[in-house]
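Neuroglobin, Sciurus carolinensis. Tokens?
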Amino acid sequence: MERPEPELIRQSWRAVSRSPLEHGTVLFARLFDLERDLLPLFQYSGRQFSSPEDCLSSPEFLGHIRKVMLVIEAAVTNVEDLSSLEEYLAGLGRKHRAVGVKLSSFSTVGESLLYMLEKCLGPAFTPAMQAAWSQLYRVVVAAMSRGWDGE
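Tokens:
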């Protein structure tokens, strides 16, 4: 598989990384719009969220958003050597599997990531940039999916 275009990835991420929590919230709001069934997977201290809004405003979930944005940041930073993140991403895959996330949900996460980038960058989010991010995300998910292997 070809490597994603590093400069397009870095250039577009610079705008997002200035306010990761805000953009991460856009990503997850979109995710819950597209796949509402994911909401019950997020429980803290046994508490179920009554709505996506309830979830998106909870301090614990904001912590999760920060972590997700840091993972994307790590992929951007290592875009030219994503294999260096393989073990870490496989471990992340195992953690997601353990809490009941289905591998198929990651395609919805990918759609939500592209949606967030488009909202953040507007017309600057070119088709070439979208292709680069799609490629980067495919590589990340391929590594994470190793966490589902051996079932």
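Residues 59-77 form the longest helix (19 residues).
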